[in-house]
Amino acid sequence: MPNPLHSNASEAQEHEPRVVAFLCKWCSSAGSDLAGVSRIQYSANATPITIPCTGSVSPMYILAAFNKGADGVLVSGCHPGDCHYMEGNYLARRKLYLVQQLLRFIGLEADRFRMSWVSAAEGAKFAEIVDEFVGDLRALGPQNRLKARH
Amino acid sequence: MSKRTGLFVCHCGKNIAATVDVKKVAEQLGKDDGVVFSQDYVYMCSDPGQGAVIDAIKENNLDGMVISCCSPTLHEKTFRDASELGGLSGFRCEIANIREQCSWVHKDRDQATDKAIKISRAAVSRVQHDEPLDPIGVPVTRRALVVGGGIAGIQAALDLAEAGLDVVMVEKQSTIGGNMLKLSETFPTLDCSQCILSPKMVAVSKNPKIKLLTESEVENVSGFVGNFNVRIKKRAQYVDPDLCKICDDCSNVCPVAVPNEYDEGLTNRRAIFIPFAQAIPASFTLDDQACLGLKPVVCGKCEEVCEAGAIDYDRRPTVIEEEVGAIVVATGYDLYGMDKLGEYGAGRYADVLDGLQFERLCSASGATEGHIMRPSDHKVPKEIVFIQCSGSRDPENHCAWCSKICCMYTAKHATLYKHHVPDGQAYIFYIDIRSGGKGYEEFVQRSMEKDGVVYLRGRVSRVYEKNGKLKVLGVDTLSGRNVEIDADMVVLAQAMEPSRGTAEIAKTLKIGLDKDGFLAESHPKLKPVESVTAGIYLAGAAQGPKDIPETVAQASAAASKVIALLSKDELQHSPTVAKVRDPYCTGCEMCVDACPYDAISLVAGKASVNEVLCQGCGSCVGVCVRAAIDVKNVSQLQIHDMISAVLAA
């Protein structure tokens, strides 16, 4: 049965996904800096917002981003055990898992929200993650489920 | 809200301008609400660029400044300093990273320009809510704690004391000296380890600035850089070091025998013992795990014979509280467990030894007084096999890392063996020989050429006993042949791993570990002696495998960092800390639980932040269901505005 909330294939082809990427300043933001220093080319669809720690990400940020029309939200932090603040990423992992469940419950495709662990040394991994995410989002087309209708 | 925002877009020569239409970014942002000044410039970080920032602030009466340029890790400080010179709080200057995160990673000019506009716009919307903050000044305690009394801790403590600082040194064992004390000679000069270490140990004990706490462990640390409170637990002092005359009457009557740690288990010691004659502090000590006499009805012999009256079985552990401004962690290494190398017969055959055991055999202070003989039958080994990388460089089965010192100490072992047993033959199995260091390569060459040590490039598959010999099966990959050696003794160059208890001390101190369990430095190149926690520094093999010169250098480096830190009257703490919005706080304590620094407590039913303890991580923000807590200048309002800016059509 066609889902009216999902766009049709032809629309999806033309749609450029818009991604908000919340990056921990100690690891993933530094990792994306390394991708830059290494001149690794990747999709321009994700715009970074640097935050002190993934632990500081309120679920509201993610919902707000979808509400304001994001097609995907990425939260990227330090590898488990490597948090600059000891345990912020553990907090984030527990909390954002629940956010993921919530998003699924309210009918958003699971692929639109992603968490990743990218250290300051993993520039190439950061680029790969963004490219893969944008690729998956391109297939999904525009996000209308949580987008505010004006 | 700031209404007079200025924006500069840097070309960074061609680094940004080649991919991003910098003029368009400046032009577009110039139309945004509250942006009253917007310009592009070829090199913002140059002197004229910074001058332009200062002039723009003054001429336009700006209350916020955004520089769209490279990563904030490079020039945030530069531009915040420039803003201050222009009369604008540095905390009202933000960086939009359009180089590393944009121009360098995209080729399409339109897309990159579009993204640069979004990044810049997000920074503008953030800066418009930035508060003009002042750094928080905190007083400094001019004392330091050194954890670990090996060569690293000793060097750091002596340097600190030399600079006039009071030092508390905590050592788990009953003597300082650490692993270096067990070594016979040291490469590449073959000078005696004790001869170079003992004077330093004595210097520690004689220095009035150094308070030495042996048989002690750090139990808890609270506080922050400049003001740590440390709780130290000292084991019961059954033997009073001030009364003990080291006459040895006690150990002669002690009926208990347990393996001697100082001799790596090659000999036994009594329950009341002195690890070795030159121990610091110079006193016998009682091992209460082994002693029978803590209940004197059972034994009590040593107390009876002690003429000095130094023994008291009723002593209890004590807890010592110390206030210090900085901490040096030098907890050292242990060798990788022999029990894990079953294929080499480790732990099964008495004549398969690890590197430190072999040191004890060679050492004049060891059980054999420096005569190399087999533990099993006390015969002199005529064929000896050394196996390098035993447990190292084997990510599938053992440790992934190179233990760095084994190539050198194995060459030293083989050389020492030849000096003791001139008619014997030494074989070394190796993967590669890594002999970087002053005089190191020459030392290895000498062991081959002068001492006739046979180097076999390859690994050993198995060691087993046959007809009283240790049969070593290996391969020589250079000749492509299998090798079988009937050895009298096998010495394994066991990998170096963080000392037991490293994970616990890291947790107590709230400093990180790397993937291998060594203490993590703050930056692998530029901050090699700083831990991730301000005011806590690292020295020696606890941070990674290293030899003695490197350890000493790192210890002195850590000490000099502490000296610089504690030379200030007041420390500056970042003011971007959490702030509670009182009316919304319900006192649910979610933030109190989430805070990793114990910086939040309830005061009159509302959360209250200790600004000095707070590190600004925002763990509290992430859990507050009523959005009643914020990190200053990364507030939730700011993040929501940044999200809007990023997603604006």
Write the layout of secondary structure elements.
The complex is a heterodimer of chains A (150) and B (649).
Chain A (H helix, E strand, L loop, with lengths): L8 H6 L4 E6 L3 H10 L8 E6 L7 H9 L4 E6 L10 H18 L7 E5 L5 H18 L10
Parallel strand pairs in A: 1-2, 1-3, 3-4
Helix pairs in contact in A: 2-5
Chain B lengths: L4 E6 L11 H9 L4 E7 L5 H14 L3 E6 L2 H14 L7 E5 L1 H5 L5 H19 L8 E4 L3 E5 L3 H12 L3 E5 L14 E2 L4 E2 H14 L3 E4 L2 E9 L2 E8 L14 H5 L4 E2 L8 E2 L2 E2 L11 E2 L14 H5 L12 E7 L1 E4 L3 E3 L16 E3 H8 L20 E8 L15 H15 L4 E6 L9 H10 L4 E4 L2 E7 L2 E8 L4 E7 L1 E6 L1 E3 L3 H8 L11 E3 L3 E5 L4 E3 L9 H19 L3 E4 L4 E3 L9 H5 L5 E4 L2 E4 L9 H5 L5 E3 L4 H12 L2
Helix pairs in contact in B: 1-5, 2-3, 5-17, 6-7, 6-14, 10-11, 11-12
Strand residue content of chain B: 25-35%
Number of helices, counting only DSSP H or I runs of 4 residues or more of chain B:
17
H and E order of chain A? HEHEHEHEH
Instruction: Please indicate the count of domains of chain B.
Output: 4
Provide a compact summary of the structure.
The complex is a heterodimer of chains A (150) and B (649). Chain A is α/β, with parallel strands linked by helices.
Describe the structure.
The complex is a heterodimer of chains A (150) and B (649). By secondary structure, chain A is an alpha/beta fold. Chain A has one domain (29-140). Chain A has 5 helices and 4 strands; from the N terminus they run H-E-H-E-H-E-H-E-H. In chain A, helix 2 crosses helix 5. The two termini of chain A are 28 Å apart. The model of chain A has no long low-confidence stretch (mean pLDDT 90). Chain B is α/β, with parallel strands linked by helices and 649 residues long. Chain B has 4 domains: 5-134, Rossmann fold (3-Layer(aba) Sandwich); 143-235 and 318-332 and 499-566, 3-Layer(bba) Sandwich (FAD/NAD(P)-binding domain); 333-497, FAD/NAD(P)-binding domain, CATH 3.50.50; 577-631, Alpha-Beta Plaits, CATH 3.30.70.20. Helix content of chain B is 28%, strand content 26%. Chain B has 17 helices and 36 strands. The longest helix of chain B has 19 residues, at 109-127. At the A-B interface, helix 2, strand 2, helix 3 and helix 4 of A face helix 4, helix 5, helix 16 and helix 17 of B.
